[in-house]
Design goal:
The protein is built from 17 helices and six strands. The protein has helices spanning 5-8, 15-33, 36-53, 69-84, 96-114, 129-141, 153-162, 171-186, 234-238, 271-285, 308-321, 324-327, 338-350, 355-361, 384-388, 406-410, 416-423; strands spanning 214-219, 225-227, 242-247, 257-262, 295-297, 303-305. The strands form two sheets. Strands 2-1-3-4 form a four-stranded antiparallel sheet, covered by helices on one side. Strands 5-6 form a two-stranded antiparallel sheet. It is globular, with a radius of gyration of 30 Å.
């Protein structure tokens, strides 16, 4: 992290050790504050940036003491252009968002080391004006982002059916089907229930649900919810009236937040029963309650994890099987793992659930969740034309579009009858 030897040099033991402990604790907090995946990207792009500056004879920090403004802009814009070409990736042109991420990475690295971000206006947060213009130009020519559309419950029920027949379905198929039901009803992000690349704990801020994060409930004779014990039998789990998922950490910083769902009365297509089946399967192969819900044993007994690719494949297969392109006007390319979370939110909205409840259940800190309530679906405009047909007989009260009687009435004694007659 930061080099503290120079600061510590004038200090003698034991004062030196005390200050070193302070610095070490601060460095640990800085490392914790970073998301590992972001840190890796920052280090990767900084290495590329250093390599780009070397042949030009430039200090990669391009500060005012060693570099002119023109040199700084030229080097940063040139590096951005090289990133744009895909030179540091698969040699295919990348979107402007990737270029922006690369520039942000080198700016943050320089700021951490020297306290000055070279891609920003000195002392400000705005990008250097030529750099901003360059990014704006690329943004204009980039194709629009393909927005993933919500799906209905029939998709996750189809996925569940594909894994339901143990004689033909694989262990992976069964887990994918159950996770699909859970993701839809609990409004989960794919990183919360499936492996998405690196399994390192801090690779991303969002962490997966584990067996120990699941709690089941039943109703007693007085219709009150009671928690089922950890050693509840499979039959008790399958008859649970509700289940709670406890969030350890997630994308926007929520911690130790619980999401509860009740059984929906379905024998198989129920989120609570889907969770029960997952826990029953895990109990058959392990006693480690820190095991991820995505973990399963394949037919050879090898422990594996459902991945985002497994989920994506099943979702798209179900969309084809149910003919979403023909019956819903939704192309297969427009559905993905995010469609389950969006679909759950959309189902709640169409059922009349308040925005506040949807936002709370989906753990959104802002109203960005409204993006999931798609305005491109036919239900978004149901009944609007009939409402718009109503004649309101409004008039404009701006300017002099109405007869102004102010001058006529100011000279009169106040009398309601007189004013009324004058206005008429």
């Amino acid at each position: 992290m930061f080099d503290g030897e120079g600061v510590l040099e004038p200090l003698q033991h034991p004062l030196r050790d005390l200050y070193k402990a302070d610095f070490d604790l601060a460095d640990e907090a800085i490392r914790t504050g970073r998301v590992e995946e972001t840190t890796r990207n920052r280090e990767k792009y900084w290495e590329h940036w250093v390599g780009y500056c070397k042949p030009l004879g430039l200090d990669p920090y391009v500060d005012a003491a060693t570099t002119t403004f023109q040199q700084r802009v030229r080097a940063i814009s040139g590096f951005a252009a090289r990133v744009r070409t895909g030179y540091y990736g698969n040699r295919k042109r990348v979107a402007v968002g990737t270029v922006r991420s690369a520039l942000t990475a080198i700016g943050q690295k320089a700021a951490m080391d020297r306290g000055i971000n070279p891609i920003h206006v000195d002392g400000g947060k705005q990008l250097l004006f030529p750099i901003q213009l360059m990014l704006d130009g690329w943004r204009k020519v980039d194709p629009p982002t393909t927005k993933k559309l919500p799906v209905e419950v029939d998709i996750v029920e189809c996925m569940a059916n594909m894994g339901r027949d143990k004689s033909t379905a694989s262990a992976c198929d069964r887990r994918v089907g159950d996770l699909g039901l859970v993701a839809f009803y609990y409004l989960l992000r794919v990183g919360e229930y499936a492996a998405t690349g690196s399994r390192k704990v801090n690779a991303k801020q969002t962490t997966q649900f584990r067996w120990e994060d699941v709690t089941f409930f039943y109703k007693d004779g007085k219709n009150k919810l009671k928690r089922l014990p950890v050693n509840a039998s499979p039959q008790q789990l399958l008859q649970a009236s509700g289940a709670t998922l406890r969030l350890t950490n997630q994308k926007n910083g929520w911690k130790n937040v619980c999401i509860h769902q009740q059984a929906n009365g379905e024998k198989y297509h129920c989120p609570v029963r889907a969770l029960a089946r997952i826990i029953i399967d895990l109990k058959d192969v392990t006693t480690d309650r820190s095991t991820f819900l995505s973990t399963y044993c394949d037919e050879s007994g090898t422990s594996r994890d459902v991945t985002d690719k497994d989920m994506r494949r099943a979702i798209k297969f179900a969309a084809v099987y149910l003919d979403y392109p023909g019956t819903r006007g939704i192309a297969v390319e427009e559905v993905d793992t995010h469609s389950l979370r969006a679909g759950g939110a959309n189902a709640l909205h169409l059922s009349g659930v308040s925005d506040t409840k949807i936002q709370k259940m989906g753990r959104w800190r802002s109203d960005t969740f409204k993006e999931y309530i798609s305005d491109s679906l036919s239900t978004a405009t149901d009944g609007l034309s009939k409402l718009m047909k109503h004649k309101f007989n409004f008039v404009s009260i701006a300017g002099k579009r109405l007869t102004d009687i102010t001058d006529d009435t100011l000279s009169l004694d106040y009398d309601a009858a007189t004013v009324t007659a004058q206005a008429a």
